Amino acid sequence: QVQLVESGGGVVQPGGSLRLSCAVSGIIFSLNNMDWYRQRPGWQRELVASITNSGGTNTADFVKGRFTISRDNAKNTVYLQMNSLKPEDTAVYYCHVVRRREYWGPGTQVTVSS
What we know:
Structural class: mainly beta
Oligomer: single chain
Distance between the termini: 40 Å
């Protein structure tokens, strides 16, 4: 049974930082590409960043230079380091993997507000 559990969300002031974690079980983590998505209020879910099984990364233009995706295969965990946060980064952030079908975590809320 594939499970993804996000953590690390919270309330932060503009310009602040957060690191999200996603603990993965039920798959051979090191063989899988992983993604972070987010869904802002009133918006469709959008891809934020991806990391391949070999560590190659891709980051959406709207967070490029501020967010970094990484992974620790020994801990079956993928991370999203978020710096210079803006109010428009307020969203629920989801971990995602495709393994015959799509799997999502329950999400973690990030609120950027003064």
